């Protein structure tokens, strides 16, 4: 059976490709001509295209039985927020249309995000949760909520789609926007994040990358069309995360705590400085809001 993976050059997509190859699947990947594919296996069939280019999608889907749609624009902030919608929303629309027209694709496994579910305010979410849409901390979050509504509508119309919602993915590998926990750890030990965020005891859901990969394969093999599945793991606090890192590295645990209002104030100053200098800010208001939604989400 031949499967196609979009977003293969990303953190999760690359791991999924490796796992599919190990299990004997024939794997084709759709990557942009500008993507860094140096880490991809030589056993993959490389197809150059873009999810915002419908013609390239249709050609890539030819003869494929399953499509994993993982590609997304994952950033806390961009100068042009419309890019989130052209990629995350427009790209999904193209994928759904190409699946329908391809005639060979029997299942579409769509990777959404726990951000599409919204904050739980310390409650416990399940597969029935939908975003309240009262406010959005980032344009990324807004775009994923919009895409989620499109995916669910497609499911009601009979599209062979399975929806997956990973938590905050962590694990070994390169530091990218898709590996946010690794980025936090790097910030912690570089001195740029020398303390706890917020009260430190609020929890959010961690998902190890290998577990998320296994969840994707299970969705391909067993997932029911139209169903939603949470690929989430342990609910843990920032205190626990940073304390474990300190124990493992034999370093001191953080002694400082940064309230969210202070982080947001610094974010606005960083953005103002960036506007004047033209340099990208270290942290932006959406990023500071991102921390607040992270620590309110339990799955």
From TrEMBL:
NAD-dependent epimerase/dehydratase domain boundaries: 3-229
Annotated InterPro entries: Epimerase_deHydtase, NAD(P)-bd_dom_sf, NAD(P)-dependent_oxidoreduct
Entry-linked Pfam families: Epimerase
Name of the protein described by the UniProt record: NAD-dependent epimerase/dehydratase domain-containing protein
Protein species of origin: Flemingia macrophylla
Top-level taxonomy: Eukaryota, Viridiplantae, Streptophyta, Embryophyta, Tracheophyta
